[in-house]
Design a protein that fits this description.
single chain; alpha+beta; Beta-Lactamase; 3 domains; 13 strands; 14 helices; Heat Shock Protein 90
Length: about 450
């Protein structure tokens, strides 16, 4: 944009400079030409006075020699006798024409111009005074004047272009700051603000941008507070459920119900705490995918044992940090694992693979016939809410990756959050949730 403004200023100032330069160049040449002819008239006028005093050729020779034109051989007087006094440069026909019409005139000659001035003598006859004006005299001082005009025009064009570049630099910097801040805001940095600079219109745009960013931050905070309030409302039915679970007799079912109530209470507490975090704090959060997966498998493994589902975990020896709040990562992991239990029959095996390349969940079920329809929010072909895979997609994209849906090596669906790495890490030996060697649950 800055170069475009410079080219525009260069084009405009060049056109203006040419509009003045061309007439000035012509006027300079015309002035030099008229000056040379004016000097020739003065030389001829001096000879008119000498002819009026005495037309004697000897005296005229002395008078011619006393002038600058005569001393340089450029002045001659053509007397009625026909013999010229001085040095002549024109033909006799031009002299005859000037004598016949009795008026001053110019005649072109080789390498210059001749100024012819008739003068009436005391006896009624006429003499013609000739002053030769060479081309060098008519162009004297023209080239230096032209060079000076061109240099002045170039200086004016360069100065105006430099000034336009300085002004355009402010405009471009202000525009770039506004564009960069817009990209940062779109990337989730709600604390970004623009320092108003540049023209008034860009300053107004910067003020409007700052107001929009502040309003957007307030709206998101209000939305988070609403989510926290809604989550808090779930505590009442959870309390009733907990009281019912406490009345159940000791045993596997009662223990699992009480454990599920405790985990649900912890999840609600985490959701409320995360929802009430500020925008900046949420943007700086990081979670370990391996740690979150281990915690969630502790819950889902109990259900897998009840349904006689063989399962295994591959990888998990090294942490996999992700730039996401823990609550969002838990939601994505639960959606991936819950999809297996919700859409495959009991007893169907599944495998979880975790590595720096992401998280993959394979099952031995019927698979997903239409992956494109499966990620449409609110659309489900299996009677669910249709939000699970869309949640996984959103979390994967927030972490800089993407959602994959395909057919896995177990014969069923493969669903995963793949992060931005050159390629999927080679599979490690399967390990259990507790970090031991390969273990199958059945």
């Amino acid at each position: 944009m800055r170069w475009e403004l410079n080219r525009l200023a260069l084009a405009i100032t060049s056109m203006v400079a040419l509009a003045f330069l061309v007439p000035l160049i012509y006027a300079t040449g015309k002035i030099a030409h008229d000056r040379a002819l004016s000097d020739a008239r003065q030389q001829a006028a001096a000879m008119v006075a000498a002819l009026a005093v005495d037309p004697d050729p000897a005296l005229l020779t002395s008078a011619i020699a006393s002038t600058s034109a005569g001393s340089s051989g450029r002045l001659a007087i053509h007397l009625p006798s026909g013999d010229p006094v001085g040095t002549t440069h024109v033909e006799a026909s031009a002299i005859g024409e000037a004598d016949r019409y009795r008026r001053a005139m110019t005649a072109p000659v080789a390498d210059g111009l001749a100024y012819l001035q008739p003068s009436v003598l005391s006896d009624g006859s006429s003499a013609v005074i000739e002053v030769f004006v060479p081309d060098e005299e008519m162009r004297r001082g023209v080239w230096p004047a032209w060079l000076a005009l061109c240099a002045l025009a170039a200086a004016l064009v360069a100065g105006s272009t430099l000034m336009a570049d300085r002004l355009g630099g402010r405009l471009v910097r202000a525009t770039r700051d506004l564009a960069g801040s817009s990209r940062r805001l779109g990337g989730g940095d709600l604390a970004v603000r623009v320092e108003p600079s540049g023209p008034r219109e860009l300053q107004d745009a910067a003020h409007a941008f700052n107001s929009m960013a502040a309003d957007l931050r307030r709206l998101l905070d209000a939305e988070r507070e609403l989510a926290a309030d809604l989550s808090h409302r779930l505590r009442t039915p959870l309390t009733a459920l907990r009281l019912d679970a406490e009345t159940m007799p000791a045993g596997p079912i009662g223990d699992r119900m009480r454990q599920a109530c405790d985990m649900l209470d912890e999840e609600l507490e985490a959701i409320i705490a995360g929802a009430r975090l500020g925008v900046e704090a949420r943007g700086n959060q990081q979670s370990d995918l391996v740690e979150v997966l281990a915690d969630r498998l502790a819950f889902w493994s109990a259900l897998a044992e009840d349904q006689l589902r063989p399962w295994e975990v591959v990888g998990g020896q090294t942490p996999v940090p992700m730039p996401l709040p823990r609550t969002e990562l838990i939601l994505a992991v639960d959606s991936l694992l819950g999809n297996v239990f919700a859409h495959t029959p009991e007893g169907v095996a599944f495998r979880v693979t975790v590595s720096p390349a992401g998280l993959l969940v394979d099952d031995a079920g019927p698979g997903i016939a239409d992956p494109a329809a499966a990620v449409q929010r609110g659309v489900s072909g299996a009677g669910s809410t249709g939000l699970g895979l869309d949640i996984v997609r959103r979390v994967a994209e927030a972490a800089g990756g993407h959602l994959e849906i395909s057919r896995g090596p177990l014969g069923g669906a493969r669903i995963g959050m793949l992060l931005r790495v050159p390629e999927m890490a080679p599979p490690e030996e399967p390990v259990s949730k507790s970090g031991g060697r390969r273990r199958r649950s059945s």
